[in-house]
Amino acid sequence: MTDIAIVGMAQTPYRRRRDDANFAELIYGVTCEALDDAGLEIGDIDNFITVSNDFWDGRTISSMAVQDACGSSFDGGRNVSTVEGDGTFGLLYGMMRILSGAYQTTLVVVHCKGSEGNMRLITNGMFDYIYTRPLGIEATGAAALQARRYMDKYKLTEEDFAHVSIKNRGNALRNPNAQLAETLSLDQVMASKPIASPLKLHDISPISDGAAAVVLAHRNVANKLGRKPVWVKGIAHCSEAHFLGDRDLAEAPALRDAAFRAYQMAGIEDPFAEIDLVELYDAYSYMEPLWFEELGFCPKGKGAELIRLGATAFDGPLPVNPSGGVLSAHAVLVAGLARVIEASLQIRGEAGERQVEGPVELALAHGINGPCGQSHCVVILGE
Amino acid sequence: MSRSAEENIIFDGRIRMPYKWAAGETSSYFLTQLRDHAKLWGTRCSVCQVIFIPPRKNCPRCVTADTTWVELPSSGVLQTFAVIYFSEPLLQPSEPPYIYGIVKLDGADTGLTHFLGEVAPGELRSGMRMEAVFKNKEDRSGLITDLLYFRPEGGSAS
Hints:
The complex is a heterodimer.
Chain A: E1 4-11, H1 23-38, E2 47-51, H2 54-57, H3 67-70, E3 79-83, H4 87-99, E4 105-113, H5 119-124, H6 139-154, H7 158-171, H8 186-191, E5 194-197, E6 199-200, E7 209-218, H9 219-222, E8 230-239, H10 253-266, H11 271-274, E9 277-279, H12 287-294, H13 303-308, H14 334-348, E10 362-369, E11 375-382
Parallel strand pairs in A: 2-3, 2-4, 9-10
Antiparallel strand pairs in A: 1-7, 1-8, 4-7, 5-6, 8-11, 10-11
Chain B: H1 24-37, E1 40-45, E2 51-52, E3 67-72, E4 75-84, E5 98-105, E6 112-116, E7 129-134, E8 147-152
Antiparallel strand pairs in B: 1-2, 1-3, 4-5, 4-7, 5-6, 7-8
């Protein structure tokens, strides 16, 4: 249990391309909506975190592109700091700033327009320039290496992964913010175009534009606001080796570690029994069972079976990605904070058509960054 | 704000940024050995005994600088592989389809990511033995691509 709550939140719809808005205009929109949601005004915010990536934005110090829009220049300027990584890492940093005792409130904003750059070139740029980058490998080629290793080690099939896409794209039909919402058949997924085998078109998240914002507040402020705070009950971040060959890609020890520490903080002993809903970072279909297993919900290699049995379906005992997940909308960096927002909406009971049955008292949100989920952040949210 | 634009203006841009990256002491040794002798070297941590390729000046696990060079054989075991079908001419070294693999050289504790060649995707199985194929000496220039690819040991999978 921490002393920090999410008191306001907003996200844009995720779309393939937003020609009508630049980074700052996307951020201004979610900033106003998140403040409104919190019942606060810009003058009530004393600390700002902007999350962005210079390669995606095509400029150095990309955080500067949105300072005017997020309000950090208000009243002569407030404290602003920046994170280049997933939005969940920005959330963690924002919490730390409040816990330092210097601030009561923090606005975390994140944006990305995948449509404006070249995803292949940009994600090739995350690899070291001596050994890996010259091979031309990028995010999806690396993910295919991980998918194959995971299949081989735990005797999984491409069909196992197809069921993730079917579930999540189907869930997205209830989410107006999703970009890809469709009823897929097993045949359709299996027959979709090979991109980086074993990954096919329907195993892969789309390129998206979007932005999101959350308002964090210390208990002293959160309890005085009109609306129900969503408490951050536990949070942890961990990162593993950079070189793909240093890792057993069928394992995610960084996620295991982050989950263990987040559960400890939240007092969770049996995650499957205690957690009501999960929003995790399924950039590729195989990632959902892999991350689900490392989060301790089931034994290694058994995640796909639970998906097939419906245990993680929208109306299952533990819904996973009822929003449609990252497979249905993938504004990079934004997607992790979107998981936090989706989980928080479910706790508030305000998820609209995608609100799951039964009370959501405790939910897990998860973000990743780096090739094949090199770093992970696990957030436990609750009433 | 009330008036919206009648058209959305879009700018074309491209950042071209030349760099001169130092390979550093450790990788310079690795790359000159690759260029001059077609040899692959790793580093062994003297504390935890783990052998890393690519080589590191310090052990990433226990962080000691007490490491020694180890010559590795040019053959080993395929850990995983991926067949690339998508096309991105701005990035790709050759026309797709082509194949990436991670090969754990005999004696090493980590895998090396590189291309696989002289093999059809359907013939590949994780766990099969692979061997390195190098460029001819006169074509080698001190780059990781002086190693052309790994192929099934003995030259063919079948």
